[in-house]
Amino acid sequence: MSIKYQLKRSKNRKTLAIKIKAKEVFVYAPMHLKQDFIEQWLMQKQNWINKHLEKQIKRVDAASVLTQKTLSILGEDVNLAFVEGQVKSNAELVDGVLSINTSRRVINVRDKQLSLIAEFAKDKLTDYCSAKAQILAKQINESFHSVSVKHVRSRWGACDSKRRLQFNLQLVTAPLWVIEYVVAHEVAHLKVMDHSCRFWQTVEGIYPDYRNAENWLKENGYKLDIFKLD
Question: Is residue 1 pLDDT above 50, yes or no?
């Protein structure tokens, strides 16, 4: 899947350029350049982009999950309750309230709270993506080796040559229909590894509304970056 970016075309521009602002990637391109060419060029610049994005993330103190009273998990809002000085540290969901309990032995409470929320979200997203991938892969007569979830900044998902599917932890707070699209996108790579017409036909076959989901991620994806993890 390609790097998250906003594309701005201009009749007067002769060359491609990248600008990173407020943790977003903006690509400036001439009108005539094809999307595939721009995507390939961006992949060559991925290390540079990641490096500069990380610098901005460290500088900008954006809202994190620890500042929020509610958290959307797989399309459902849950209330957050932070409880310190407990016997043990854990995250527990009861009656729509996610209690983040930290032990009295914890020194850096905020870091522990963040890791507890992230681990809880990771488990939920992994279970959902695994179940959904099983259903979608069966529709195209394919299978996969494993499903994992990690906190990454450059991709929503990935499918490698060993048929391992990986998804971005940030997706857990996206609308459920958007998460389903990302799963469908990576499952389609089990059949077609590139982004050819045949690939997009495969995606459309298992997720017809893929264009709307792609647009939602391009316009709103930056709002999902609430896990400030190293």
Answer: no
Q: List helix spans (H) across 60-148.
A: 109-139
Token match 């729509």: residue? 96
Both tokens of 30, joined, read: 């001439």
Please state whether the predicted TM-score (pTM) of the whole model is above 0.85. no
Select from 77, 159, 156, 165 the least CA-distant residue to 129: 165
Strand segments (E) across 118-216: 146-150, 157-159, 164-168
Residue 59 has a pLDDT of: 44
Q: What backbone torsions phi and psi does residue 31 show, to the nearest 5 degrees?
A: -60, -35
Read off the tokens for 39.
């995507």
How much is the mean pLDDT over the chain? 88
How many Å apart are CA 128 and CA 21, to the nearest integer?
33
pLDDT band at residue 24, thresholds of 50, 70 and 90? confident
Taking CA atoms, 131 is separated from 26, 146, 155, in Å, by: 34, 11, 21
Amino acid at 64: S
Assess contact for 138 and 183: CB atoms under 8 A: no
> Per-residue pLDDT tens for 6-16?
888 988 888 88
> How far, CA to CA in Å, does 214 sit from each of 2, 99, 185, 190, 225?
11, 33, 10, 19, 17
Inter-axis angle of helices 197-206 and 109-139, to 10 degrees?
100
